[in-house]
Amino acid sequence: MVHFHIVTxxxxxxxxxxxxxxxxxxxxxxxxxxxxYDPKDFLRKSKRVQDxxxxxxxxxxxxxxxxxxxPILRAVQKAIGKKRGVEIIFFSTDGAQFDEAMAQxxxxxxxxxxxxxxxxxxxxxxxxxxxxxxxxxxxxVSVGPYVLTGGELPAxxxxxxxxxxVPGVLGKAESLERxxxxxxxxxxxxxxxxxxxxxxxxxxxxxxxxxxxxxxWKKRGA
Length: 222
Known about the structure:
The chain has helices spanning 15-18, 21-29, 69-80, 100-107, 131-136, 152-163, 172-179, 204-207, 211-221, and strands at 2-7, 32-37, 55-56, 66-67, 87-97, 116-121, 139-142, 192-195, 198-201. By secondary structure, the protein is α/β, with parallel strands linked by helices. The longest helix has 12 residues, at 69-80.
């Protein structure tokens, strides 16, 4: 079982997605677990108003607000507890490019008897104090050459991709499909689709029943 820990100011932004379809069913079965940690819950009471904020203006000037390190670090510490071998991911545009190979690696168990804990730190606004990543020695990961308003979508993307490699997440039919050669093009009924006066047919090879030729066709399109 892989336990995903998500440090985010907005858990409600991705909880619905992670609670439905294949991921939701996997959570119900106990194949994976997802926990949320809101940095706002880790603020400490203070006489100073600024200490009860999760964000502050950046040193050196610049637009927007930066997430303070203390509530983030406390949230991560809560997630880690006394666990060992925890993978901590810090989303950053200059991080390692997330791909299928990384997903497979992240899905591999690190605990005795199987299982793993992965912590995702989701930034927002203009980012997180850089000392968080350095203190935690978190792995910088990028989901693409673009900037998003927060780390919640990257976290959901990585969780979805990693979960597919966790035993018990995919059903029998889906597991079988993953082992087959896939294609960029897929078709279903009707055999002939009529749309706006034109007929669009399914490729003849897929109707032939000739499995060897079908596999060759799929490989060409993969």
